[in-house]
Amino acid sequence: MKETLTYQAKENGFITDLPYGQLHVSSDARYGFRPYQLLVSAVAVCSGGVLRKILQKQRMEIEDITLSAEVTRKEDGAQEIEKIHIHFVIKGKNLDQKKIEKALALTRKNCSMVQSVINSIEVTETFELVD
Length: 131
Hints:
2 domains; 3-stranded mixed beta sheet; alpha+beta; GMP Synthetase, Chain A, domain 3; globular; 6 strands
């Protein structure tokens, strides 16, 4: 599967037109999304979406999933992302901790974004259950 995205230079970054709308990307947050924010968002939201699908297939009563992503970047050089820690807050009824742990392991294997960075960025996950 191959897809081409085209980006046009603008004064302070780049812009692309996507089916949902325009995406502005810039190293300066005043002019667009920063590239590292997009990468972290892709990994975190992909994980959240895959986890939600797995939990739905397991017929768990999920009311809401909120996630946060903590990013660790190198302090010098290109300031590469070293680690992304994703914390899920899962709200629902009669949630089984062991099933959620297994679902997270499946999530890691089936999230294309996690699999894309797995050899270069450490990705970890934790969760908490809320009634």
